[in-house]
Amino acid sequence: MTINYDPRVLKAPHPVPGAPDNWKRFFSFNTDAKVIGIQYIGLSLFFLLVGGLLAMVMRGELITPASDLVDPTVYNGLYTMHGTVMLFLFLFPVLNGFNNLLIPTMIGAPDMAFPKLNAAAFWLVPVFAIVLMGSFFVPGGPASAGWWSYPPVSIQNPLGHFINGQFLWILAVALSGVSSIMGAINFVTTILRMRAPGMTLFRMPVFIWTAWAAQTLQLIGLPALTGGAIMLLFDLSFGTSFFQPEGGGDPVLYQHFFWFYSHPAVYVMVLPVFGIFSELITVYSRKPLFGYRFVALASFVITFLGLIVWVHHMFYSGTPQWMRNLFMVTTMLIAVPTGVKVFAWLGTLWGGKIRLTTPMLFVLGGLVNFIFGGITGVMLGTAPIDIHVGNTYFVVAHFHYIIFNTIGFGIFAGIYHWFPKFTGRMFYEGLGKVHFALTFIGATLNWLPLHWAGLMGMPRRVASYDPEFALWNVIASIGAFMLGVASIPFILNMVSSWARGAKAPPNPWRAIGLEWLLPSPPPAENFEDDIPTVISEPYGYGLGRPLVEDEDYYVRRAQEA
Amino acid sequence: MTSTSPSPRQGLPIRRILVISLATLVNLVLSIWMAQWSVDWLPVAASTAAPYVDGLFSLEVGIGCFIFVGCVGFILWSVLFSRADKYDESDGLPIEGNTRLEIAWTVIPFVVVMALAFYSIHVNEQLASLGPKTKYDLAVDQQPDAVAAADNLKDIGPIRVISRQWSWEFVYPDGVRSSELHLPVSQRANFQLSSEDVLHSFYVPAFRLKQDIIPGSVISYSITPTREGTYRLRDAMFSGAYFSSNQTHVIVESGEAYDQWLKKAASQPLVSGLSQATELYQQRLAKGDRGWATVPPAAPPMVNDPGHPDVLHDA
After folding, report:
1. pLDDT, average across residues B238-248
2. A476, B45, B69, B174: most buried, per Cβ within 10 A?
């Protein structure tokens, strides 16, 4: 049966109940946060694949001690681009995707505070993606000094061309910073100004707390990175010597600029994942979050401490003793607010009604990995140990435990959990579980053994290594290839579920939260003019209290839509 | 264990206390065993600094293992015994928190990490007394000796360590130059670390010693080797195309052997020293200079003893 719809309905920039979906909206300058969110997530998952393929070539090189697969210069370019793609084209955009989907719907706002700025921030991502990917094709190849781009090696510019890989890299990172600042202003303003009536700060879901804390860090830290990047660009292209010793500059100064932002950047990425953990553990244990206020406030303690630990990346850069001692203390202190969160999640599991669905499996796997990565993090924060294992594979193993095995797992958990809400379709649980099993085993094989390689003294960023490290590297490479395989069930699941999965009800997980009072997928302006009044704290599982006034009305309305 | 019926029981929950005590005991034994084992994960300890680093590492492995096993055990326990049945749509215990518990898990970790931090500061001071690290700014064309004060407690040195893209050169006080670092055992050696191009890092895993070398500065550093053997010196700060080849040997030998070597080396003429990068770069040029751009390697240093790069190393 074909129905003739008004062409305006077919081209509507948002879903219209009953009408076929206008998928073209995802490829346009659309100001709806829910469209932008999916744009961010889709694009970033594409770059997860790109970054992953770069990594697999690296692991192919490292499966044998000798440098025999690619030229060492190519290896250096690959690892630099792998890190850059994963951070600036996967992690930041994917989390901004979550911010776009979840912030307005969780706080009952119709959209972001500045929808056009929001769309502009997104469209900068493909722009700098093209700049960055284009650097593969300029003479001399892409940037190859690591994602730190420490001078002087980053500004050596062997061919002497004005347009070179490093130049394009700095340009891309600076544009990424602009995009992130535009996003951060939007997210913070929306959270502070556009909450539903009755949603006081201590009635906000923890994801909102963590997004707010993370975006605050972006606003404080990014100017330092951008400043450092501009000075680096001037040294590279215009012959200044901010960081060139020959002209009286100081290469270590760059490290301060870089890490003042780039250490907190880890918290920008991990905080929203703490938010995802808090949302999901409560739903799938059917319990209130243990110590909600403590968990919420701990986010800002992490924000504050995160800003004063950056020198722990420079313990062996000729840093004076007093500075090493001071930054060792602040670094270790971060374990306290993080511990508060971990213990609260454990307390939430206790005596719950746990359901091991795909999202919950990713949360629990991510949590176990995070505890492990947190412990190795304290070891790295201990200056005398860091003097030995710093800049070795121990660090690589540690930060992949955080950045993939925790943050990556949290992202997968979040994608599965909110997939029905924003696509209106259910995913296939079986494929999800296969994805989890392959990911968990692959990630463990990939990064657990590398801790020992690092402890034995294998430096990071090497294209070849002494034969005594071979065993660890063979296991790691097998794990890496397994992670590549793990992407197949994930892609299959996402594509086929979105195309032909079962229709999702408004609240398939029986979750408590404003977004679950909306139809799946939510209409263009979410609650439109009929915004509910929040009357209680989030996560009231088992407490029998309504979240909003007239809850039955909203539940009914969502089901009828 | 059923967790669904929190029936108020009279007296102490003896069974629960027993189970928790037993689990804690097992965890404690496991953690102590891991802490002892963890020292074997590190390379042989070949300097006076190494035992301090290893001790601290072992301590943190023990504490970390206790926390990890405790938390993961708790998660597994919950997952095993607090699972919802397939058609069970009820909620868990509606516990919203416990202020006393929350304060405890803030204060106890705070005390533990602060104790660790202050103990580490103490270790840091010990390490500083074993080998102080001082960075001096170097003006253009200034020699390191002109600005760097030598360590007063040194037995030998200052040995100048010159790093380049991508080779190492060691200059001994009597002017002998070598591509491999020779050190007498149990004598405090003082180094002046300098770089002629980019950042490098002087990393000898067996010494637990890593120090970045910063162009435009000279860093004075001391270390006392305690075990004879051949160890690897690895550049640990990315320095460009042939970074991974920028490695050489450190040979720790008896005082007599060291003196003999020095005497013999002094009589040898200067020859081209070890530079694996130069060989690799020549191979690359021979194959048509494919790959991405790199600066050419610096000319190999002219040394009295180019060393024996094929000798196997201990760590």
Report:
1. 96
2. A476
Q: CB-CB: which of A159, A290, A382 is closest to B120?
A: A382
pLDDT tens for residues B4-21? 444 555 567 888 899 999
- Beta strands, E only, A467-533: none
Q: Which residue of A has its CA nearest to B134?
A: A318
* ipTM here: 0.94
pLDDT tens track for A266-297: 999 999 999 999 999 999 999 999 999 999 99
Query: Could you tell me if B187 and B155 are in contact, meaning their C-beta atoms sit under 8 angstroms apart?
Result: yes
B121 interfacial to chain A (CB closer than 8 Å): yes
- Flag if B199 and A152 touch (Cβ within 8 Å): yes
Q: Least CA distance to B126: which residue of chain A?
A: A384
Choose among B14, B219, B273: nearest CA to A252. B219
| Long-range contacts of A18-25, Cβ-Cβ distance < 8 Å, separation of 24 or more | none
Tokens matching residue B8: 């108020």
What value, to the nearest 5°, has the Cα angle with vertex A17 and ends A16 and A19? 70
Q: Report d(CA B213, CA B207) in Å as an integer.
A: 17
Q: Please list, in sequence order, all residues whose beta carbon lies within 8 angstroms of the beta carbon of residue B99, skipping any fewer than 6 positions away.
A: none
Domains (range + CATH), chain A: 24-560 (1.20.210.10)
Query: Within 13 Å, how many C-alpha atoms sit on residue A255's CB side?
Result: 20
- State whether B243 and A76 contact (CB < 8 Å): yes
Give the C-alpha separation, B290 to B270, whole Å. Answer: 33
Spatial CB neighbours of A55, under 8 Å, sequence gap ≥ 6? A82, A480
- Strand-strand pairing, B181-184 and B217-223: unpaired
Q: Which residues are within 8 A (CB) of A450 and not within 5 positions of it... i.e. 6 or more apart?
A: A393, A394, A396, A397, A400, A472, A473, A476
Task: Please name the member of A74, A291, A372 whose beta carbon is closest to the beta carbon of B97.
Answer: A291
Q: What tokens were used for A408? A: 């990556």
H helix intervals, A108-205 = 115-134, 165-193
Least confident of A357-361, B89-93, B198-202, B305-309: B89-93
Instruction: Show Cβ contacts of residue A285 under 8 Å, excluding neighbours closer than 6 positions.
Output: A348, A349, A352, A353, A354, A541, B82, B92
Minimal C-alpha gap between A166 and chain B (Å): 11
Give the gap in angstroms from C-alpha A264 to the nearest C-alpha of chain B: 20
B146 closest CA partner among B132, B133, B160:
B160
- The shortest CB-CB distance from B245 to any of A342, A343, A464 is to A464
